[in-house]
Amino acid sequence: MDFPLADPIKAALHEAVERDDAGYLGPELFGVPQALAEFAARRLDWEVDPEQVVAATDVMVGVEECLRVLTDHGAGVVITPPVYPPFFADVRHVDRRVVEAPLIDGALDIGAIERAFEEGAQAILLCNPHNPLGRVWTRGELAALAELADEHGAWVVSDEIHGPLAHGFTPIHAVSRRAVAVTSASKAFNLAGLKLGLIVTAGGEARDRIAPIEPEAHWRAGYLGAVAARAAFTEGDAWLDDILATLASNRELLGELLAQHLPEVGYTPPDASFLAWLDCRFLGEDPARTFLERGRVALSRGLDFGAQGAGFARLNFGTDPERLEEAVSRMAAALSR
C-alpha cells in the first residue's frame, strides 16, 4: 500500500538500529508468537497457540516448506485460479505438480477439487482471503473444503496474509485442525521487505509434520521483520483501523470513478485488502499493456494469475484518493486514444 508506516513500527525499527541490533532472531522469536496470538484473538476471532507458531523467511517460503513436509515428491497440489502468481511457480519449485481447479463465478469448484483429491492430489493451496478477487471465504465454504480434504487424507495450506484487511474473515483453523495457516504482518502493515512469515498449526498431526521445519526456517527469518511485526501486532491497531477506513472509502470511490469514466470495465468491490480485479475483456487478453503503454498506469497483468485472468487486470487502490482519481483518469484517456 502507498501509505506511511505506523509510528510504533518506525520507532521499534529505529530503536533496534540505535542499539546496533541487526543480528539473528533469538529462540523466542522476539515475542512475535505471543503478539500474534493476542492480535489474532483481538481482531480475527482466531485462537492461536504461541507454541505452534514457526518462523519462515516470508509467506511463500513458508508455503514451500509446508508442502515439502506434508506432501510427497511429485504429488499434486490444487490451486484455484485466477490466483496469486507465485502459487504456480512455488508449487513447481518444490517439485510438486500444479492441479488447477478454477473458480466458478468467484466460488470454489468443490466438484473439481474433489476430483483432484480422488486422482491423488495431496493438498490444496488456498488463498484466504482470495487474491486477486478479494473474496472472503465463508465459514460454510471453508468447512466444506476441510471436510473434503479430511475424507481424502489431504492437507489444506491456507495463505491468510490478507486476513487483517478483511471484513468477516474466517481463519482455516476455525473449521479444521488438519490445516496449516501461513500469515504475516507484511500485507496489513507494509512490511514485506523485512521478511518474516509465520506458519501456524492447531495441534495434532499438523504440528508433528511441521516440527522438522522449525530449526532451519527460524534462522532464515528476518530479525528486523520480527521487530516490526511485534510492534505491528501489539501497537498497530489504531493505524490499521485508519487504513481500513481509507480502503473502504477508496473501494467506494473506485466504483464511482469507473462508473463515470470507464463504464465498460466490470468491477465487483472486494471484501478484503487493497486490490481490485477489473474485467476489461473488451480490450483483449492483456488490457494492462494497453493502460501502461497508452496511459502510463501500471496494473498487474491478469494473465499472470492463470489463463482465467485473460482480459482482466488488477489495480491497487491502497493509495490516496487523488492518486486513484489520476489513475482512472489516465486509464480513460488511454482508451480515448
Summarize the structure.
This protein folds into 2 domains: 7-235, Type I PLP-dependent aspartate aminotransferase-like (Major domain) (Aspartate Aminotransferase, domain 2, 3-Layer(aba) Sandwich), CATH 3.40.640.10; 238-336, Aspartate Aminotransferase, domain 1 (Alpha-Beta Complex), CATH 3.90.1150. It contains 13 helices and 11 strands.
Q: Could you characterize the architecture of this molecule?
A:
Helix 1 packs antiparallel against helix 10 and helix 11 packs parallel to helix 13. Helices cover 44% and strands 13% of the residues. The chain is built from 13 helices and 11 strands. The protein has 2 domains: 229 residues, Type I PLP-dependent aspartate aminotransferase-like (Major domain) (Aspartate Aminotransferase, domain 2), CATH 3.40.640; 99 residues, Alpha-Beta Complex (Aspartate Aminotransferase, domain 1), CATH 3.90.1150.10. The strands form 2 sheets. The chain has a 7-stranded mixed sheet with strand order 1-7-6-5-4-2-3, sandwiched between helices. A 4-stranded antiparallel sheet has the order 8-9-11-10, covered by helices on one side.
The CATH class assignment of the largest domain is Alpha Beta
Strand order of the largest sheet: 1-7-6-5-4-2-3
Number of helices: 13
Can you tell me the CATH architecture of the largest domain? 3-Layer(aba) Sandwich
Poorly predicted regions are none
What does the largest sheet look like? Answer: 7 strands, mixed
Instruction: Determine the CATH topology of the largest domain.
Output: Aspartate Aminotransferase, domain 2
Label the overall shape: globular
Distance between the termini: 29 Å
- Please tell me the overall pLDDT: 97
